[in-house]
Records
---
Amino acid sequence: MMKIDILTLFPGMFKGPFEESIIKRAVENGILDIRIHNFREFAPGRHHHVDDYSYGGGEGMVLKCEPVFNAVEALKEPGQKLIFLTPQGRKFNQAVAGELAAEKSLMFFCGHYEGFDERLREALADDEISIGDYVLTGGELPAMVIVDALARRLPGVLGSAAAAHEDSFSEGLLEYPHYTRPADFRGLKVPEVLLNGNHAEIRRWRL
Ligand code: 4FD
């Protein structure tokens, strides 16, 4: 079972994507254990402040050190990698998904606001990943994208047919156009070769 901890100020954002379809089934089948933590709960004081003004001035608020340090010290287990989700991180792709899927446990830190105190990166980040060259309001959507991409690479998450198809796809082979019934949809026809049952010919067409 792979364990994933997510540190966020907006735990509600994860409700939809992780409670439907394939991720939901992976959790129900004991393949994935996903825990969402609101690190505001780790902020000291009556008001649980998580952000503050930037030293040296400038627009926007900066995430403070203490709530995130406290959360990590309370939750992170030995060997667990902590991954920061930022636009500056190394670019996510299918190979990185495979790399992450091989880990026993991961923790994701979803930053917000204009950024976070640099000492968090220096002291806590084991890795820093970006899902692409654009800026979002937070690291939550990147966390969901990454968890989805790595979950479907865990043994038992996809059905055996889909998993076999994936194997060929990762080798760059078996991606071909798909069709299903009807053979004629409003005059849009399925290629004749797929209808005649000649499997050698079909294989050649797909290549
Ligand atoms: N492209 C990505 C990740 C996070 C993000 C944030 C510093 C902004 C895009 C730290 C600045 C976090 C990405 C939150 N936007 N925004 O993967």
Note: The beta strands are 2-8, 32-38, 51-53, 61-63, 81-91, 105-110, 127-130, 184-185, 188-189.
---
Amino acid sequence: MYPALLSPLVLPHITLPNRTIMGSMHTNLEEIPGGFERAAVYYAERAKGKVGLIITGGISPCPEGCVSARSAMLTNQEEVRQHAWITDAVHREGGRICMQILHTGRYGYHPNIVAPSAIQAPINVFTPKEMEEETILKTILAFGNCAALAKEAGYDGVEIMGSEGYLINQFIASRTNRRTDDWGGSYENRIRFPLAIVRKVRELCGNAFLVIFRLSLLDLVEEGSSWPEIVQLAKELEKASVDIINTGIGWHEARIPTIATSVPRKAFTYITGTLKKELSIPVIAANRINSPEIAESILAAKEADLVSMARPFLADPQFVQKAMENKAAEINTCIACNQACLDHTFQLKISSCMVNPRACHETELHYLPASKPRKIAVAGGGPAGMAFAHIAAMRGHQVTLYEATGQLGGQFNLAKVIPGKEEYAETIRYYSTVMEKYHVQVQLNTKATPEILLSKQFDEVVTACGIHPRKPDIPGIDHALVHSYQDVLSGKITPGKRVAIIGSGGIGFDVASFLSADDTAVDYTHFAQFWGIDTDFLHRGGLTGRSALKPKRTIYLLQRKGGKPGASLGKTTGWIHKSALLSKGVHMWAGVH
Ligand code: SF4
């Protein structure tokens, strides 16, 4: 079914059974008491699901490189023992796992950060200390020692994080490297740091150890690398005996979305494909790949040798197993919302997944067979009702779900019509499929009335009836020109050319996005033009600049409280919604009565 995706990749000292990589994503598990044991179960479940290779979240080689003051490191024997929990658990399931070594440089969220130059990142409150030559040499050694300890802990290899604007990337780009010594100035000098790290890792770990380098192929910031420079570094990395190059897209401070749901699927794989032609070692494609069909198409088009997915393995640990069994419709698809994974990660909370609450809670949330199966009615066929019905039926209960309308999905049916949120349809598809698999009786166009519920003699009734929007108590609210967001998004009414939206939370922003959308298809060309991405490999950093669009409507987004509109939106996605609407001429007013 997926011949390219499911074919093995034979490397000199390891064979990967298929072309899937669970990409690095930090979960904050390693930072809590007992967290390594929990992380071990989390990773082992993905190994059991047959992923080809796992790459852990970033682990720092030294205190200055930590994400926060309490972040995980690998610098001593005690930490080796903790990491061995993870490697043992993964290997017991027949999996393979590499540890990512991440030095955050100026992105670290603590006062002891260091960087090639003392330039504060626009997304950090701390300013880094410029690294002296002695610190640079110590840091290179720290990377090597960290990799050697990873090998001792049982990892099959390491991924050296050289993209996303972290320390190594900060050395590579003149944006953040203003040094005048041998580690700055010319490009040859600026890439000495990553190459020295790779050589040190090889020297201390030997050849029978996988070394992956995550290389930034598109910085998406001013004064980023040019394409010829990126190719030059990739070739040097290959010469320095890196086994595989992974793709990094966009620095964290870039103001262009790279993984959010509004980014078209497999948006950036053409860049990986262009690099692949220059190298003889395998390359990994990444970003917005969330189904076996898409992964297969990338490999079939020879745009990559392997495909990395991080969030899709949070959403469904059995992604590969289901693809192997030709059950892709049963895959719980990552909808790229970022709400429970990256938004949590960056708030230093434990990550999870909006569509799979077991993610990172595998030791706490067990779906065991019911000891006493019951007859259960579920009132409401939205996401909550469907999720409950699926799990209850899977556990052996006899479940009937009543939905008053003619379709399943509830408010996800409204969400999926918002431009860039089309992925929400996948959650409806997933639950519809698995409810059928576990024989949930679905009664559409049927309200769960007391008469029905009593006549069927259910043991339990679960209400999942959704919400009614609050109707603000303001003069004119019943005027013929005033409509609910549901009427607009469901297509019941089409607003005119001048629209005021009362409320600027998530739904207000979604409605503004819906009403300001043009009719152009949301493909990569359109996306790249809108956000100003250079698709011709001509401009440094991959930027061409954005131009303002002619608004389709005049839209006012009104917020009652003061402060910046959109402040309550998701940490990693709110800026995208705001930036997109501002460039479409949407007016945002706060403190409005
Ligand atoms: Fe994907 Fe959203 Fe789950 Fe994150 S929370 S893994 S983005 S579905």
Note: Residues 44 and 90 are 4 Å apart (CA to CA).
